[in-house]
Design brief:
This protein is mainly alpha-helical. The chain has 18 helices and no strands.
Length: 413
């Protein structure tokens, strides 16, 4: 009976709903650490150094980055259902284990394992959604999935509140238990997409060897542009994920228990609006113009540039809150269109691999900026660090508009 679900007309949207929950847990488990520093540094004094805390956040990103291409390669060559279920189970178990840690080296090792396991998810999930949804609703489906990431980010902001009430050990324990239970549910309901072989696959002798697959991806000039276009906005994107609660606390002079939920909920709600609007507009625009998704994404990136300036330099609640809302909407529009744009450039069977490389460069950029902002924080130039990130986004926006010109809509796959 469960297997018959795959053939129901609503199942592609059920896949999005199921993976929405995984996306929520993916970001909630990683985000909550950034809001619980104040509580944890009482038991682990070394976390009082912002630069040291930045290293703890960055180790996740470095491992995550190195694993992303591997995850994409594996996803294109194996059953994506079990890859998703397995990665969720492992990172949830790690989250539970972090509640048992009482020293910095243990936290560092667990954070690295989390980076390894969470890296398997995004390329796998997005390629599965892209296969279940055609171009006519692809951006909307991926955008809806992305709202799970933002919701998880927002709920992670309550880590500080829960830590203040029940202790940080308990917070990690409960979030970990929820993830383990959800992995068991996913094992029953999630199914791999059945695909009829394309004409190209029928005429070939099987899947391309790994080296040829990677060479084919990087032979597209557009993919190199896409790598930079993805990496540059990842600088402020990861800065927002890892340091926005601290920025709100510093700029608005409020405790972290209040700054955590305020900052993450603001970004989550505004990003939710962005991905829905960006998904609908993109899906309609691409029907009329082959660069419709690119133009939609460019509008989103354009909104983040002034937002970063006001986030970094603003000192009042209206300025900082307004900038966060503007950034969330813009980044949401951008986020909803990354995989759909990639689908216009890279063949079906190589999408997870290609997205894995995109994710790698984006995450490495995020790891570097996480440590860089930690140093700026210690030196007293925290807000300025956010403001200058707008320049990188501007360069990416210009390259995108000038050189990213897909030759196919990918609407018929």
């Amino acid at each position: 009976m469960i297997t018959s679900l795959r053939h129901k007309s609503f199942y592609p949207w059920l896949v999005v709903a199921l993976l929405w929950g995984v996306a929520l847990l993916n970001y909630m488990d990683r985000q909550m650490l950034s809001t619980m520093r104040d509580a944890m540094q009482i038991d682990i004094p070394v976390l009082q150094s912002a630069e040291t805390f930045g290293v703890l956040m960055a180790v996740f990103l470095y491992i995550y980055g190195f694993m992303s291409p591997v995850a994409g390669i594996v996803a294109d060559r194996t059953n994506r259902k079990w890859l998703i279920v397995g990665s969720l189970f492992v990172w949830s178990a790690v989250t539970y284990g972090m509640g048992m840690a009482n020293d910095y080296p243990t936290l560092l090792v667990l954070r690295a394992i989390m980076g390894f396991s969470e890296a398997l998810y995004i390329p796998t999930a997005l390629s599965l959604i892209a296969d279940y949804h055609t171009g006519k609703n692809r951006s909307l489906a991926i955008g809806l999935h992305m709202t799970g990431l933002y919701t998880g980010q927002a709920l992670g902001g309550f880590g500080a509140t829960l830590a203040a009430a029940k202790g940080w050990h308990t917070a990690f324990h409960w979030f970990g238990i929820v993830g383990i239970c959800y992995a068991l549910l996913l094992a029953v309901l999630l199914m791999e997409k059945e695909q009829a072989p394309t004409s190209e696959e029928k005429s070939s002798e099987g899947q391309l060897p790994l080296g040829q697959s990677i060479l084919l991806i990087f032979s597209h000039v557009a993919f190199w542009i896409l790598l930079f276009y993805f990496a540059a906005p990842s600088l402020p994107g990861w800065a927002i994920k890892n340091w926005l609660p601290t920025l709100f606390a510093d700029s608005l002079k409020i405790p972290m228990a209040s700054a955590g939920p305020l900052s993450t909920i603001t970004i989550a709600i505004s990003s939710f609006i962005g991905v829905i609007v960006g998904g609908i507009v993109s899906d309609r625009w691409v029907q009329k113009h082959i660069r419709g998704r690119i133009y939609t994404s460019a509008i989103g990136l354009g909104l983040t540039i002034p937002a970063l300036l006001f986030l970094g330099l603003g000192q009042t609640l209206p300025a900082v809150l307004g900038a966060a809302i503007c950034f969330g909407i813009g980044f949401g529009i951008f986020d909803a269109n990354n995989m759909p744009i990639l689908c216009q450039i890279v063949p079906n069977k190589l999408r997870a691999t290609a997205y894995g490389f995109m994710n790698m460069v984006g995450v490495f950029a995020g790891a570097a900026i996480t440590q860089w902002l930690g140093k700026f924080k210690d030196e007293g130039h925290f807000g300025l660090g956010f403001a200058v990130l707008g320049a990188a986004v501007l360069v990416a926006l210009l390259l995108q508009l000038l050189f990213l010109k897909p030759k196919m809509t990918a609407e018929n796959d």
